[in-house]
Amino acid sequence: MNRIYVAIFSLLISVSAASAQEWTFGLGASDFGDQGQDSVALDVEYRHTPFVERRVLSVAWGANLGLTGEGDVFIGGGIWSRWQWNSGWFIDNSIMPGLYEEGTAGNDLGSAFEIRSLLGVGYQFDNGHAISAALSHKSNASLADDNPGMNVYSIRYHFKF
Question: What values do phi and psi take at 7, rounded to 5?
Fold first, then answer.
C-alpha cells in the first residue's frame, strides 16, 4: 500500500504545479461481477490543457485517482479525448494505465498493473462546468493469469479552469 501513497503524493505535487484545464469529481458504484465486494466509488480526475484541438475533438494528458468504500485504490495516467458539439453535449473517453491495490481479498484484479478505460456522455454549461454519466472498466488486459476486471458507474461533475 505504501507505493500507492507515494504515487498519490507524486500526482498531487505534479498537478499543483501545472495549469489545469479541468478537474472532474465522480461518485458512483463499483461492480466486480460475481466476485468481490461492490461498494461506493469515488473518482477524481485531472485533465491538462489539450495538445490537440480540432473542430469538435480535444486530446490531452490526464491523471486519475479512484477509491472505493472497500478500500480499493487506483492511480493512473494517460490520454483522454473529448468530442464536444456546439449544443453543449460531449462524449469523453480515456485510457489510463496505472497501479491498483485491492482493499479486500475478494477485490483482487489479478495484478497491481491495471488499465482503466472510460466512456462518458455529458453536457457542458455556459460557465464551462459540466455534468456527465460515465462507465469505466479496469482490467490487466490478460497480462496476468487472472483477469476478472471491474466496472464503475458514476455521475461526474467537471470544473474548468
Answer: -65, -40
